[in-house]
Design goal:
Elements: H1 3-6, H2 11-30, H3 38-82, E1 109-112, E2 118-121, H4 131-141, H5 148-161, H6 165-170, H7 173-180, H8 199-208
Antiparallel strand pairs: 1-2
Length: about 220
């Protein structure tokens, strides 16, 4: 195994190794005679404590790693749903692009929805923020610009406001999508008379982005 391959071991694998080591240590301690000197018994107890700590750290790492991967995948899924995958953070409504991340571009576009209504929108960025929504999030989070990191933070805040962040981290995709539908018109059940993705399409995009579905 090369050095590069060594570092690709997942946190889950590390946790499994730690759990095995712990079980082996418990078996060893169970076989220790009752009359073993206190000093030697203390050494074994200390070793067990170290293994227990290693197991706890590994399990925590698994949880944190999975949550981060699921969160990133969910944001990628929203970009797919909103049709901004190609141009990403610099996407304007309709597929065009803007040049500066200094602020929301605030360009106004006209469109007709599926109900035949003539509407206007300022949607922009990877997550198609309306200018008024962006202004509120920018002020609340003290965001410095309309750059990628700011857009990600603002999208996560919208997800949190909908009570869906825990679902996102845990991989409960259907529940998270249902809660976030009022925010993004492209999500199933949004009800804005605009094209909506199917949940199966979103789950596939989420999994392709590295997310794990738990429910």
């Amino acid at each position: 195994m090369s050095q590069g391959q060594v570092f690709t071991l997942t946190a889950a694998a590390l946790a499994a190794v730690a759990m095995f080591a712990w079980s082996q240590q418990q078996k060893a301690i169970a076989s220790v005679p009752d009359d073993m000197p206190d000093q030697e018994a203390g050494t074994i107890d200390g070793a067990l404590g170290n293994v227990q700590s290693m197991v706890g750290d590994a399990v925590s790492s698994v949880t944190e790693t999975d949550a981060q991967a699921n969160t990133k995948a969910f944001l990628d899924m929203i970009a797919y749903s909103e049709g901004t995958t190609k141009n990403g953070y610099s996407t304007l409504f309709g597929g065009g692009t803007f040049d500066s991340f200094a602020d929301h571009p605030r360009k106004l576009f006209s469109f007709t929805n599926q109900a035949g209504q003539s509407l206007k929108t300022t949607a922009a960025g990877r997550y198609q923020f309306l200018a008024r929504t962006w202004d509120s999030l920018r002020d609340k989070l003290n965001l410095p610009d309309f750059g990628p990191e700011s857009q990600d933070a603002a999208a996560l805040e919208l997800i949190r406001q909908r009570g869906a962040l825990a679902d996102v981290k845990a991989g409960r995709v259907a529940a998270a999508v249902a809660k976030c539908a009022p925010i993004w018109a492209s999500l199933p059940g949004a009800g804005y008379s605009q094209p909506e993705r199917k949940l199966t399409q979103l789950v596939a995009a989420y999994q392709n982005a590295g997310g794990a579905v738990t429910a």
